[in-house]
Specification:
12% of the residues are buried. This protein has helices spanning 12-29, 52-57, 64-68, 79-87. It is flat. It has 91 residues and is mainly α. The termini are far apart. It is built from 4 helices and no strands.
Amino acid sequence: MNYRHAFHAGNFADVLKHAVLTRILVHLRSKPAPFRVLDIHAGAGHYDLTGKEAQRSGEWRDGIAGLLARRLPRGSCTPCALSRCGGGLQS
């Protein structure tokens, strides 16, 4: 399988994954025990949404573009909030 994240970066699934991961990390930080995060599948960490790959697929328009176009209150990027961004997720 040939997968290049540059074509899919910022799509709805990518935004949802990061929202859920962020909520998990926030929850873990509220606990007294220390924890460590090791991301063994990390990619480049920065993807150009104006680049040819992202423009070719356009998937980011149905994902992160919906959040970037809105002024959301701090802490509102949860799966429930994402459902209001047109992603189709129901809470």
